[in-house]
């Protein structure tokens, strides 16, 4: 500033950064904050704007602060807006690759440091607080807009169900389908990761998953599907005291649905701890004839604990374990260990994410029961998929 340059404070904030941080253990939180800061540095250093950056800091807030230097003759606001339009998508992509379950909604506020303040420290602090307010206002506006959109989706039941085949490896025949959900086409909530992440944060996950269940029953009945059907449900929904009565009511409306053909997948990305009605509901589901699967096994830290708690009928091995298993003996050993556990408790094993025949060959060699992945078929409408596979 003493050299005649302007300094601008840029604050990057996220609507759910604090909530996401609270889900992490202390060592994971430290790592996350460090990686987020490194990601921001990397994004700037590998751009044409690298010479503008003075420092990146997690300064005064849960977001990140960047200090940029600019010459007085620069069209500053235009320059900043152009820079952010280019760099923010790159930062979001960087975060998504490392933390795909962090439903980030990044917003940016910026403010120039005014020279008239008595001390530089005061000037920096005031500008930073104004930038935070600008970012938070944008975040709040977007959050409200997305919340209205989600409520409309739930009210109008605007979701689409797709199906992906699950193959029995010994016969190479379709044994089951996994039903997958998509939001309204062409919207930010079309992506299921965004849709369900936002539903969790806004306490609408139970309402959304009840509609998924209804839509799934409709599709099974309308197509006359006789194969098994896998449905992903969060422990939040499965542990809701209203879930069993709601399910029983749906069964009276869809008389062709046979509970023994439905498998509820409990995702490994969510904890079952602290859910009062979860175990009771699981027991009732089994008494009604439904089966239980543990999804994403091998992707999280609590796989073995969840398996020992639920004794699932089916164990689904996450694609992160399967990818490249044909060239990685450690991964193959992991699969062998999970197969031994499955045999001990009488569970069927399904491997997810198979994209290469070499991966399928390793699974067959180890007598994995069933497989799912792009090698066998991408998600599509059940009517179309069944015709193609038949």
From TrEMBL:
Give the Pfam families listed for this entry.
EAL
Report domain EAL positions: 143-390
CDD domains this protein is in?
EAL
Q: Where are the transmembrane segments?
A: none
Give the signal peptide, or none: none
Under the heading InterPro entries, the entry gives: Cyclic-di-GMP_PDE-like, EAL_dom, EAL_sf
Its recorded name reads EAL domain-containing protein
